[in-house]
Specification:
Shape: globular
Helix content: 25-40%
Distance between the termini: 13 Å
CATH topology of the largest domain: Hexokinase, domain 1
Largest sheet: 6 strands, mixed
CATH class of the largest domain: Alpha Beta
CATH architecture of the largest domain: 3-Layer(aba) Sandwich
């Protein structure tokens, strides 16, 4: 039995071969999706480089982000993997499955009550990457999918409201304001452009990653970080309270990874916004919830392996 797992995000695509016992047989391979016109082109390029005979693959599991422009389904994937059983799932669903039995070695504590995740309670997963994902993990080990990143925000300050209104001008479709507008990767760059224009400053960042590399050296980036973490805290408060998910809050995704890596994750601002002064029973539960960053960027591939068991 020969397995291949693939995670297609909005920016990157990740591949790995797997053993029958559902562990990786090689270190996962990560490449940018942008150079490839289609999933077929990217997949055939990987198979060729790794010298894998596609006809020898018996199981292929694929997680795809809604932010990916590639079109794929069972019919289009069949010619690429002619003898394989093909499974297609949402990428954030796979991400959450990878966290069901997550090792504490793969977590970095960020705030709340410093204790292990309580797997007997609901747990929440927020993923900020190209888009914004939200899922819950039940005590029974089931993943509950949501469209939480597409909720209309409950904002607190005039600066937050003004920024949300301004970001709408960058959207290509006239949908309502949603959390993803400012908490996804494109939203960060949009906020930077808005604040830079207000300050009559010139910007030449290629993309969000280029902007984050500037980090603390750029005062406008610091302004963006304040707004981002304030709104992330508001979102996380709703996530925990609505889902009664006080077992743990996991933060994951490419943007979160880069904020941690560039020392830009503003934990103090995030936690202040997370701990809304609501009724004591809710505030106590939120304060008691441990908040973690998921260090493993290949957690979606692990989720695919788990789903294949």
């Amino acid at each position: 039995m020969s397995r291949l797992v693939i995670d297609i995000g909005g920016t990157y695509i990740r591949f790995s071969r797997a053993k029958e016992n559902c562990s990786f047989s090689v270190v996962p391979h990560k490449i940018k999706a942008e150079p490839f016109a289609s999933f077929e082109e990217a997949a055939r390029n990987y198979l060729r480089q790794q010298q894998i005979d596609p006809a020898a693959l018996t199981h292929v599991a694929i997680a795809k982000s809604g932010r990916s422009n590639w079109s794929l389904d069972q019919e289009s994937c069949a010619p690429i993997f002619p003898n394989a059983h093909i499974t297609l799932v949402n990428d954030f669903e796979a991400n959450a499955y990878g966290l069901i039995d997550v090792s504490e070695d793969d977590l970095l504590f960020l705030g709340g009550e410093q204790k292990p995740p309580d797997k007997q309670q609901m747990r929440a997963v927020i993923g900020s990457g190209t888009g914004l994902g939200l899922a819950y993990i039940s005590p029974q080990g089931e993943v509950l999918k949501t469209h939480g990143g597409h909720m209309r925000p409950a904002l607190e300050t005039q600066a937050q409201m003004d920024m949300m209104a301004a970001v709408q001008k960058f959207k290509t479709s006239p949908t309502i304001p949603i959390y993803e507008d400012v908490l996804g990767g494109d939203g960060l760059l949009s906020m930077y452009k808005i604040l830079a224009a207000q300050g009559h400053l010139y910007t030449d960042y290629r993309d969000t990653h280029h902007m984050l590399e500037a980090g603390q050296r750029d005062p406008v980036v610091r302004q963006v970080m304040t707004l981002y973490h304030e709104i992330l805290g508001l979102f996380a408060h709703q996530v925990l309270a609505f889902g009664h998910s006080y077992g743990a809050l996991y933060l994951t995704g490419g943007i979160t990874d880069r904020l941690i890596g560039h020392n830009l994750f503003a934990a103090e601002i995030f936690l202040k916004s997370l701990y809304q002064k609501t009724v004591p029973i809710v505030l106590d539960d939120v304060r008691d919830t441990p908040v973690y960053w998921v260090k493993d960027e290949f957690v979606s591939l692990k989720g695919l392996l788990r789903m294949a068991q």
